[in-house]
Amino acid sequence: MTEVAPVRSFVILGLTGAGRPFRPGDWAERLCGVMAGFRPGGSTLAPHLGYSPYVMPGWHDGVKCVSVDARLYELEPLAYRFVAGFASDNALQVLWGQHARDADRSRSAPRL
Q: CATH number, domain at 99?
């Protein structure tokens, strides 16, 4: 019998399993742009004007990341699987059970 993975919020870090930065540098913005149309009902903002509240780019400990809210699964299971599959297909590090508020310490880039 195949086990089904639980649906949880997670954060995709822009680091490969080997700890190297994922390229291209704007990967998070591109991924979030693709997911921009997945919004809660009643949202008045046009999808092309902002990111989905369920898939947001950000930073985690100085590493570019994408925070994925588990509520995306309730809205569209295939979209949730697409984002999780993106992380898996590209061998990116994932923090499972994290929520955007927990992982995204700052919306701005790290100080250099």
A: 3.30.70.2340
Query: Per residue in 11-28, pLDDT tens?
Result: 999 999 999 999 999 999
Instruction: Say if CB 90 and CB 53 are below 8 A apart.
Output: no
Query: Considering the domain boundaries, does residue 3 fall inside one?
Result: no
Rounded Cα–Cα distance for residues 45 and 106 (Å): 23
Decide if 38 is inside a domain: yes
Q: What pTM was computed for the model?
A: 0.80
Q: What's the number of domains the chain is made of?
A: 1
Burial class (CB in 10 A: 0-12, 13-18, 19+), 46: exposed
**Token pair 């902002």 in the structure block, residue:** 50
Q: Please say whether the beta carbons of 68 and 54 come within 8 A.
A: yes
